[in-house]
Design brief:
It is a single chain. The chain is built from 13 helices and 22 strands. By secondary structure, it is of the alpha/beta class. The protein folds into four domains: 120 residues, Rossmann fold (3-Layer(aba) Sandwich), CATH 3.40.50; 123 residues, 2-Layer Sandwich (Transcription Regulator spoIIAA), CATH 3.30.750; 116 residues, 2-Layer Sandwich (Transcription Regulator spoIIAA), CATH 3.30.750; 72 residues.
Length: 454
């Protein structure tokens, strides 16, 4: 009987692509992949450390898995493992902790995956900027996803005062262009309909080799546009790296999804300075309107941090007003939490936890309102939806190119198909739904012979 492994991911889309690659390694070595929550011989957790809540969730998951599966061989890797291995090692039952440079070398460090009555084994090297430490990652045929994550960049050279990711992943480095295209072709050949480009700072992609001109993200996009792929999406891109060339390419090719996720972090310029962000409010506003005016039906998501040290009530009101006036689709709101070895830890003006919670709640409701208005605008319109896995409620769900989530009755569409849909009903009409995740629009497949586009 084949040994089994269960894997779980916390954090960003980059982490998901890396977990997919780890899963592929286990599959190649004869392991059967189990769903998270199912009993398995081995459990792998790819962690996140962007906030204290993320750290806490990591520890809770580890303890829960050990409690429910005491005989499982427990492997913890990722950013939290890189920066705080001692916290994880204190949890009885953890067998192996691997750093960022070691996460793709599991089978070099362990072969039998037999639980032993020994202390936890920790293998962590310093995060670097060496291209030799670039762990190639992309969604593989061990997943059930129809949208593939393709890692093209890692690390970050920015020095945002609240962020530990450069400490965990090292300086910015990018995968050789030929390898990017080769990996993308593998995904296309596997049958994926959409490729999502991921990285710590994806827009900072740049590669120079002997005898070649420097490649930037725009050069990669030009090459990907030549592939037989239906959709290409960038997971997230810094505003100062979203160039006019990229926008022009998005306008000229139907393969590029009219959806951007752009970190803002604050709508107040004084807070942006303290965060050491690389733009001003006016630049961000102009960029959003440039996208809105230039790309038809574009959907724009924005990251915001509330409760940063020095964010007074007045500064928060400035951010709120700034966001209210922006023609965006949704917000991802993060509550500030102190991270070791970051500059923001020493800043004055700490914000009370109760205020942080109140501000976060206000922005979450603003996000819901923005999304409701955006969804409502497209009721009655025809959209192409890439459908993913079926749900237990008798529906199948998917996304439009501009990131509207849509559901239809399960029998009307098949997984990994792009279908023509009329959007008929907006279910985003109850504020409590915000706490349970975004409720999708309901749609109906257009009844005609070409309703499923293969």
């Amino acid at each position: 009987m084949a040994r089994t492994v269960s894997l779980h991911t916390l954090g960003c889309k980059l982490n998901y692509s890396e977990t997919s690659t780890i899963a592929k390694q286990f599959s190649v070595n004869g392991f059967e992949i189990k769903e998270y929550g199912e009993a398995a011989d081995v459990f792998v957790l790819n962690t996140c450390t962007v906030t204290e809540n993320a750290d806490r969730e990591c520890r809770q998951i580890i303890r829960s898995v050990i409690r429910n599966n005491p005989s499982s061989y427990i492997i913890i890797t990722g950013c939290y493992a890189q920066l705080q291995p001692e916290d994880i090692a204190k949890i009885e039952g953890v067998d192996l902790i691997l750093g960022e440079n070691e996460k793709f070398k599991i089978f070099e460090y362990v072969s039998d995956f037999e639980k032993k009555e020994l202390s936890c084994n920790v293998v962590i090297s310093s995060a670097s900027g060496n291209i030799s430490d670039f762990g190639e990652a992309f969604s593989a045929d061990t997943d059930s996803r129809t949208r593939a994550f393709l890692k093209i960049q890692d690390g970050c050279d920015y020095s945002c005062s609240y962020c530990t990711i450069p400490l965990a992943r090292g300086s910015s480095r990018s995968l050789e262009p030929t390898r990017v295209i080769e990996n993308a072709k593998k995904l296309v050949d596997t049958g994926y309909r959409e490729i999502i480009l991921t990285g710590v700072n994806t827009g900072d992609y740049r590669y120079s080799g002997e005898g070649m001109n420097e490649w930037k993200l725009i050069n990669i996009l030009y090459e990907l546009d030549k592939l037989n792929i239906d959709r290409i999406r960038i997971s997230s891109i810094e505003p100062n790296l979203l160039t006019d060339e990229i926008i022009a390419l998005y306008k000229s090719s139907p393969k590029f999804c009219n959806h951007f996720h752009i970190p803002l972090q604050s709508g107040n310029e004084e807070v942006l300075k303290m965060m050491k962000r690389r733009y001003k409010n006016e630049f961000f506003r102009d960029l959003v309107y440039k996208l809105k005016d230039g790309i038809k039906d574009v959907g724009i998501g924005v990251d915001v941090i509330v409760g940063f040290p020095g964010e007074t009530d007045e500064y928060f009101e400035t951010t709120l007003k700034f966001l209210e006036e922006l023609p965006i689709m949704y917000l991802h709101t993060f509550s500030y939490s102190e991270r070791k070895n970051t500059a923001s830890v020493n800043l004055p003006g700490k914000v009370e936890i109760s205020k942080i919670k109140d501000r976060s709640r206000i922005l979450r409701y603003l996000s819901l309102s923005k999304r409701f208005d955006f969804y409502t605008k497209y009721l009655g319109t025809h959209q192409k939806v890439l459908f993913e896995s079926k749900k237990d409620n008798g529906y199948i769900e998917g996304y439009t190119t501009n990131y509207i989530r849509v559901k239809v009755k399960a029998g009307e569409a098949v997984e990994n198909s792009i279908s023509d849909v009329i959007l008929t009903r907006n279910e985003l009409n109850a504020l409590p739904s915000l706490l349970k995740g975004v409720v999708p629009l309901e749609g109906e497949i257009i009844k005609r012979e070409t309703e499923i586009i293969s």
